[in-house]
Specification:
alpha/beta; single chain; about 300 residues; 19 strands; five-stranded parallel beta sheet
């Protein structure tokens, strides 16, 4: 058991590291529970980040996260790269249990992020890691000069399709509607890329193969007609699920599992507990909005501590 800290930040995406930067600069010496395998959040699986202010030529997602971490540590934040397995947030002293021990703090900032949403079709689990992937930057090079599919129609799916066109002989973008939800600039790039073929009004209903993925079975969402698409790799990019499971028995969440806060603040239903980033935001879900909410959570935590000390 360590000493009782002022702040523990659970999560190490843009929201978590920004919260750490602000609380560290305030002299609160935050501890960041950064996670084990998924430290750094979703941007660790992103190639070029072109829309984060201050990087006119773009920056790789992992590089951006490294810089945020370095900035937080420069001001005195400490990080442990382990997962939070249980949290007790109800008392005046909060307890965060990890694989490396139990840590205590007067405030906790929840920057838990989100997880990949799955297709939940036959064959998906069977071929996960054997053709089915949720990370183009991790696995794209395995499918050089092969047929690749991407499922989704938003910015993430479009970005992954464009990235994978560097490797695949053809990239099949499978979207259940008749137009992309992606931003116009990405949709225009998709339309202009000769290696990308869009399958409109289509959804994946089954994945087949022997030892590895060989075929995606598609169904036309309008006619119901089924077809088989031979692919060696299929990348699922259909959104995310908030990682609120570890706190949902204590923290109020909406029907989708996103943590509810007392807007415009980041306060949750429990005193001293603040939430930010993708575990809260199901509307914008951008790196810059996550970072902004991390700033808000840090300031809210700082104000909470100052108020508590004024009554001591």
């Amino acid at each position: 058991m360590s000493e009782v800290r002022d702040v523990i930040v659970v999560g190490s995406g843009p929201a978590g590291w920004t919260a750490a930067i602000y609380t560290a600069r305030a002299g609160l010496e935050p501890l960041v529970i950064a996670g084990a395998l998924e430290a750094g959040g979703a941007l660790m699986n992103t190639t070029e980040v072109e829309n984060f202010p201050g990087w006119p030529d773009g920056i790789l997602g992992p590089d951006l996260m490294e810089k945020l971490q370095s900035q937080a540590e420069k001001f005195g934040a400490k990080a442990v790269f382990t997962d939070a397995t249980a949290l007790d947030l109800t008392g005046s002293v909060k307890r965060v249990t990890t694989d490396d021990g139990v840590f205590e703090a007067r405030t906790v900032i929840l920057a838990l992020g989100s997880a990949y949403r799955k297709l939940n079709v036959p064959g998906e689990e069977e071929f996960s890691g054997k053709g089915v992937s949720y990370c183009a930057t991790c696995d794209g090079f395995f499918f050089r000069n092969q047929e690749i599919a991407v499922v989704g129609g938003g910015d993430s799916a479009a970005t992954e399709a464009l990235f994978l066109s560097r490797f695949g002989s053809t990239v099949h973008l499978i979207h259940r509607r008749d137009q992309l939800r992606a931003s116009k600039v990405l949709a225009d790039r998709i339309a202009a890329d000769p290696k990308i073929k869009v399958h409109w009004n289509s959804k994946v209903i089954e994945l087949k193969g022997s030892e590895a993925l060989e075929t995606a079975v598609l169904e036309d969402t309008v006619t119901g007609e089924k077809s088989q698409l031979p692919v060696a790799g299929l990348f699922v990019s259909i959104g995310h699920l908030p990682r609120s499971g570890v706190v949902k028995d204590q923290i109020t969440c909406d029907h989708g599992g996103y943590i509810l806060t007392e807007e415009p603040s980041t306060r949750t239903n429990l005193p001293g507990i603040f939430a930010c980033g993708d575990v809260v935001d199901h509307t914008y879900r951008q790196a810059i909005t996550a970072a902004g909410s991390g700033c808000k959570a840090a300031l809210d935590a700082q104000n909470f501590l100052e108020e508590q000390r004024s009554h001591e």
